[in-house]
Amino acid sequence: MRFSPSNEAFYVYAARAARGFGDGFAVIILPAYLSEIGFDAFRIGVIATAALLGTAVTTLTAGFLGKQYDLRNLLLIMAFVMLATGVAIPSFEHLALLLPIFFVGTMNPQAGDIGMMVPLEQSMLARRATDEERTSIFSRYSLSGDLATAAGTLAAAMPDTLTSFGFSKINALKAMFYLYAALGALSAVLYQALPAGQREETHGRAALGRSRGIVYKLTALFSLDAFAGGFAVQSLVALWLFQRFGISLSAISTFYFCTTILNAFSYLAAVRVAKRIGLVNTMVFTHIPSNLCLIIVAFIPSLSVVLAFLLIRAALSQMDVPTRTSYVMAVVTPAEQPAAAAITAAPRTLALSVGPALSGVLLGTGFSGLPFVISGTLKTVYDLALLFGFRHIKPPEEQDKNLRSNNSGTPARQNGQQLIC
After folding, report:
1. pTM here?
2. How many whole angstroms separate alpha carbon 305 and alpha carbon 214?
3. What is the mean pLDDT of each run of 10 residues along the chain (421 residues)?
4. Which residue in 8, 19, 140, 201 is a FRET match for 264, CA 20 to 30 A apart?
């Protein structure tokens, strides 16, 4: 079969959608299952931290292997890890056995563009994207994942249906992990359809060259944002709603469906906004209002009002996802893209992993909304630091064509060459 860039993009989008469907129900089923087998909020937080720590390690490893080995083969290996994760989790109920499974596996307490497959998929999409198309391509990539994630959140209500047919609650929950394993197998089929022999050739150069400084600075800021986000990962927000308001599994799955749909279509809005005000401004000025919504819900006693503010937050909080990825890919050369994707993603996941265990402890205090106040405050600090630190560093499509050369600053990518912007 003859492959073109559009063929590759289709299979990457489809695989992202398969994983997204699994992520959608996993973030809801995971706390419900762990609670059912007797885990308290602290131990659930420890599990979440282990999962995110492992994801950070495997993401960084995947990014650096992407320049040496066939991308398709690496993705196939990771799809089989996803399959094994879904089979292994319901097979054990002891913390000491589950921790290494979550560390090595692919299941996370937070859905979205995180995981060991992400830097490889992003580098495949970025290498053939023009500067004008790049943000749209990453918007569609995130959109395909989040629409599938939305469908997956509805699937989280399936255990309630299964129990009505005579299944025990624990067996109904376990069945969802086997569905997750099946989605790993589907991902493997989709990755198999990609052309073989693809890797990023660096011709003996370091993984990062002149772009090292800006990548490290962005990584530090993204890590602060992720650390803040760790206090409010989706699984622990669901646990908070379960415990504080007694919301049902079916109700939370419907609510997460709505939030994920809002996330998904916000990616399309982000493309339009970014064309008008720029990538960095889009990241910042959509993020700060979402942070305020998160802080506010900590103080509200009404479930309906809490859900309303969380929906507003969902419509704004993820507009920085495609714009952030596009910005990183814009300011490095093509040879640096896999490493840049991994270096900016892995520490984010590592920082994200710290919050859940702390949040699990704080959920058991007299003010259970404290994790959300901490999260929203720290995220706002990140937004302001990003604005003042990078508002003058423009990607190629935002530069004045007459000023695309002979300026001082940081290297950016334009048609495979490095520019000074």
Report:
1. 0.68
2. 41
3. 58 90 89 88 86 82 70 87 93 90 86 74 74 81 86 88 88 93 94 70 54 87 91 86 86 87 86 90 94 95 95 91 86 75 75 80 86 95 94 81 43 40 34
4. 8
